[in-house]
Amino acid sequence: MKVNYDRHKLSQLFMMIISVAGWVLAIFMLFNVPSIEVPVELFFLFVFLVVCELFPMPVPKGLSSLTFPVLYILYILYGIELTLLLHFVAVLSNGIIRTRPLRTIFFNPAQLVVSFYLAHVVYINWQNHHSFFTENPVLEAVIGFTILISVFYLVNNLLVDLVLLIRPEKYTFSLWAQKGQGELFSFFISFIYGYLIHFLGSQNRGEIDIFSYFFFFSPLVALSLLSSIILRLKSEKNRLKALFQFSSELNKTIPSKDWEGALESLIKNVMVYEDCLLFRKKENGQWEAVFIDGKLKSCKFSDEVFDHLEAIKAIKVFDQKSLKKGPLAEHFCDRIQAAVYAPLLIDEEVNGCLVLTKTRTKSFIVEDIRSIATVANQLAIFLKTKMLFSEKEQRILLEERNRIAHDIHDGIAQTLAGAVMKLDISVKKITGGSAAEAKNLILDSNEQLRAGLKAVRDSIYALKPYPTEQLGLHSAIEKKVRELNEDHSLQIKVTFVSRGKKEALSPMTEKVIFDVLKESLQNCVKHAEAAEIQILLSYQTDHILLKIADGGKGFSLLQAMKKAMKEPHYGIFQMNEAAEKIGAALQIESKEGRGTIIELKVPKMGLEGEF
Fold first, then answer.
1. What predicted TM-score, i.e. pTM, was given to this entire model?
2. Mean pLDDT of all residues in the chain?
3. Residue 259 and residue 275: Cα distance in Å, rounded?
4. Which of 26, 68, 553, 571 could join 88 in a cystine, given CB atoms 3.0 to 4.6 angstroms apart?
5. Which of 560, 496, 558 is nearest to 528 (CA)?
6. DSSP annotation string for 106-120
7. For residue 208, is pLDDT > 60?
């Protein structure tokens, strides 16, 4: 932690040194600007310079502008002093207009001025020691331009890379490569423009006036505007795509047992942070940490901390000056300079809080805040859904216990009570001399006890883990298919096909799907007289489809419904009721002599079902 903190201080020191050098250089140039009559051309060139700076191309860890061709013209026409001064003012004005952090406002113009001045020193040194191109002034000018632009881009990027490497934040090779691609594009466009300047300048095209500059630099300004807009739209598209993927994957984790780990992985894919903490409010009103990713001074949170978190009703950003006012300030390491607290709200009720930190103050930009707010809203819905499912699970378990108790009371208990009563009577009959009656009572009791024993065994079997819980849905289906194919007495060929990417389902959803399959297969075997049964389980875009088709004799659906009403059993009605529990739709198509098709469609929003 001390190392990271020192790196942060070191990066600030490095930026301060460059800032001081750049500002001193700019002030020196201000007092050494030669006296000139300010023509209209200079004003227009300065306008072009400002526009290009106002609309840079966003690249990873920074921005890249197409200002170098304008700088080069200024440099040729008005010298190094005025060029550096105008560039300094343009970049400084841009930082102030966009309300960038103070350190950036001071560093950016200084860094660019230092880079161009060093390029100027190398260029002048080359001119003084390499005069053998004087016979071809155009070639000499092109080579000089190449040296000037190469040194400028090299030094400029080197200064930025050094700052990013010194900082404790991760600066990976991938980020460096992406940033380099943007800088190479800017270098290439600037180089082409510089070559055109010398090519057109070598042609005798008359006097260069304001209109010449306007038509020459208009495409550059237009390209700067278009590239900036296109890349910003692309960046926004990628951000929205990441958020959409986060939302989609988040829904899939609802039935997952390791949902905490899945959440942490999803947030890492969509957000950049130093520390990430997710808290939730449980059903009993107590708070708990769902996960903590990062290094904190302490992970023991007091009730006072949770009270402060619950009081946050809107997203809050704390920077260096206000950081210690945040609820978790004492838990953050010294290197942390900014934190965002995003409450998880459902109907104005706080159900949790998402906290993200960074090592630089004012490093959470507007786009970051919007993304965090969207993620927090999705997490609020997710955790609320998990809570509702948990409550529903408890209710279902309670109902199942009551059902078992009712079955035992009305079934096994009554059977045993009747058997005991008859045995008591038989004892009296034996002592009273009625051996025949006692024998009959004992035989009746024996039958009742056998029936009770069967009921107990059936109850024990019913309480055993379901096949889908033991094996998983696919393995349970494959086992069932294998059992039917290995039963040679049936003479039925059963095929099973699975399509699409398998997705995690809740135990209740898997149970319903398997129950519908099992009942359908049982009906096919008993009544369809089919030679082949085809089973399809397809994971589609918006739903999961279970399809069972046979080429049997078929049946009248109306007659089957009437029969089901008279003879209650796990048939059409029960399959429909089970499907409704998970929001699924059951469809049966059958005609006499044309076979039967049973389809169960489980919508994606209903995949989670019951736990």
1. 0.54
2. 79
3. 19
4. 26
5. 560
6. HHHHHHHHHHHHHHH
7. no
Task: Give the three-state DSSP class for 593.
Answer: coil
Q: What is the pLDDT of residue 610?
A: 38
State the pLDDT at residue 132: 54
Which of 108, 379, 88 is CA-nearest to residue 253?
Answer: 379
Question: Tens of pLDDT along 398-434?
Answer: 666 666 666 666 666 666 667 677 677 776 777 666 7
Q: Is 347 left (phi over 0), alpha (psi -120 to 50) or beta?
A: left
pLDDT of 145 over the 80 cut: yes
Q: How far apart are CA 551 and CA 7, in angstroms?
A: 74
DSSP reduced 3-state for 56: coil
User: Cβ contacts of residue 413 below 8 Å, gap of 6+?
Assistant: none
Helix (H) or strand (E) holding 280: strand 275-281
14: Cβ contacts below 8 Å, ≥ 6 apart: 162, 163, 166
CB 345 within 8 A of CB 327: no
Cα distance between residue 175 and residue 164, in whole Å:
10
Which pairing describes strands 493-499 and 316-318: parallel, antiparallel, or unpaired?
A: unpaired
Pairwise CA distance, residues 220 & 487, whole Å? 78
What are the angstrom distances between the C-alpha of 371 and each of 367, 376, 389? Answer: 6, 9, 27
At residue 70, what is the residue type? V
Taken in order 574, 578, 583, 585, the sign of the CA dihedral is negative
The angle formed by the CA atoms of residues 96, 101 and 103, to the nearest 5 degrees, is 100
Residues of the chain above pLDDT 70, percent: 79
Give residue 286's identity as a one-letter amino acid code.
Q
Exposure string over 80-105, b if 16+ CB within 10 A, otherwise e? bbbbbbbbbbbbbebbeeeebeebbb
**E strand or H helix that includes residue 419:** helix 413-432
Q: Is 319 helix (H, G, I), strand (E, B) or coil?
A: coil
Residues 42-94 pLDDT 10s: 888 888 888 878 877 665 555 677 788 888 888 888 889 999 999 999 999 88
Residues 6+ apart with CB under 8 A from 466: 507, 511, 514
- Rounded CA-CA distance 232/240 in Å is 12
| Distance in angstroms (rounded) separating the CA atoms of residues 71 and 123 | 14
State how far the Cα of 304 lies from the Cα of 25, in Å rounded to an integer. 52
Q: In what order do the strands lie in the sheet with 287-293?
A: 287-293, 275-281, 349-358, 338-346, 316-318
Residue 608: per-residue pLDDT? 42
Cβ atoms within 10 Å, residue 515: 18
Concatenated DSSP letters of 455-503:
HHHHHHHHHSPPHHHHH-HHHHHHHHHHHHHH-TTT--EEEEEEES---
Give the Cβ contact number of residue 140 at 10 Å: 18
Q: What is the rounded CA–CA span in Å between residue 572 and residue 557?
A: 10
Q: Which two tokens stand for residue 565?
A: 């009403």
